[in-house]
From TrEMBL:
Protein origin, superkingdom: Bacteria
Organism name: Aetokthonos hydrillicola Thurmond2011
Signal peptide: none
PANTHER family from the UniProt entry: PROTEIN TIC 20-II, CHLOROPLASTIC
Transmembrane feature ranges: 12-33, 53-72, 84-102, 114-136
Pfam families to which the protein is assigned, alphabetical: TIC20 (PF16166)
Organism classification: Bacteria, Bacillati, Cyanobacteriota, Cyanophyceae, Nostocales
Protein name in the entry: Tic20 family protein Ycf60
Amino acid sequence: MTFRGSTTAKDRVFACLPYLLPIVEVFLFGGYFLKQFPILQLLFLPLFPLITIYYNVRYAGLIIFFALFIFVVRNEKISHFVRFNTMQAIMLDIVVFLFSILTDLVRLVPASGFALQTLYTTIFLGILVASLYSIVQSLIGRYAEIPALSEAVYMQVR
């Protein structure tokens, strides 16, 4: 991405926050992986209150999704950097949703246990790595370029 001006420390922090949405959303896919490596559950310990609230409040994901899209991405008064990262987090959340449909289809196939475990772990690690990469890039003040996804984000954020 071309440089669109300097980013303040506040913009960098606010650009990181929306990535909690795909991380919390993909947490359910990490069950098999976290059973294999239980020590990694400690990394999610700070997020457990947020995860608990997210999954116990009905339609929380949908409410957060639309709130971020309407009040952040479409608000021209907010810096482009924050809007870009918010839209990218929303797109990652959409990818998680699409993968959840795929896993529901795979679950219909008899004896798909190993394939389902592999798919869950791949989805979990892929979204987690993409989110963490984006958070690090945001903290540095750079636009996180994720192939295909960032191009779709550029089309949405003017």
